[in-house]
Every structure is written in structure tokens, then in C-alpha cells.
Amino acid sequence: MSAPLPLVAVYADESCLGNGKEGANPGGAGALIEFRRPDGRISRRDLWISEPATTNNRMALRSVIETFRALGAKDGHFRAVFTTDSRYIVDGMKEWVFGWARAGWKRKTGPIENLALWKEAIREAGRHQVSWHWVRGHNGHPQNEYANHLATRAAADQSSSGGAVPSEFEPWLAAYRAKGGRTHDVAAFPDSDSFRASASLPRVD
Length: 205
Description:
Elements: E1 7-16, E2 27-36, E3 42-51, H1 56-71, E4 79-84, H2 87-102, H3 115-125, E5 129-134, H4 142-157, E6 165-166, H5 169-178
Helix pairs in contact: 1-3
């Protein structure tokens, strides 16, 4: 029996300043990626990207694409617990994409919004074993709050990390709490033995 793939935890969020309003609305997406070292310590990396004119849903998909593209660099393959406050992503990856695939990537109510990005997200995530999880946003979850910080900062200053870079999660969390920000305890790293991947994603052309 082959050894299980390395396990990572991902916390992702998205932002669009002025989402839904007329005009060019800048947006960003951020992700905190956690790895467990052989000695048990947690190593973290940050990733963020931006677009000058976008939507929340588009940036949520970009958070998936860019995270798994970074993890797949140098032919990396992982088990990943992907946590986001976007129901668009969790419901889409666990339910909608399978119906769309069976229907030839069409739906009765009209064209699929962001279809090219959905397919790109499926290609990138499909190289890994992924468990998709939803968490309520702006509810004091430290890693989710930090992903939101990365996303909103990227939207505001239109910056990109250029891939996964050393994380600033711990100093950010200390500063956030010092300013009166309330959070729960830092979420524990997922248990490797209890990991269960969501259904394998459909193939895309």
C-alpha cells in the first residue's frame, strides 16, 4: 500500500470593492496554506492576487486556481482541506459541477457564470485529493479572518504575492487581537487519519 499524499490545510477568501455596482470594481483573493513539519510544528505560506475589475465570485474561483497551481508546482500532489466562507465554491465543487458536466457544461436557466474559470479551477484542484469545507465568514475564525485580510488588502492595493511566500499570520493575529479584534482559538491542523476527500471532480476538456 502506497503512503498517503502529504496533507495541507488551506483557508481562502475573496474580496471585491463595490461588488455588483456599476464601473470597474477592484478585487482580490487570499489564501493561507498550512503544512505540518516532521517535528509536528506548523509551517505557513501566504498567497494573494488581484484584478482591477472583477466580482466576488470570480475572485473566489481565482483563490482555488492560484492555490492549487502553487501546490502543483514542481509536480506536487497533496491531500488538501480547503476551507472558505464562499458557498459558491463549496456548493459548486461538491454539487453543481457534476450536474453541469452531465449536461455538457450547460444549464437550463442559461449560460454558466464564469464557466472558463470553473473549468480552470477543476483542472488545478483535480490534480489533488480535496475536501471542501465551508466556514461562516467574519465570525472570529482566525485563519479565515487572515485570509480575508489578505484578500481585502490585495483588492485595495492591487498587489500579488507572485506565488506562495512566508506567512505573516502570527504577527498579524497578535496585532489584530491587540487592537481588540475577537477571534476563536487558532484552528487545529486537520487529522491525517480522519481525512476524507470529497468526490473526484469531473473531467474537463
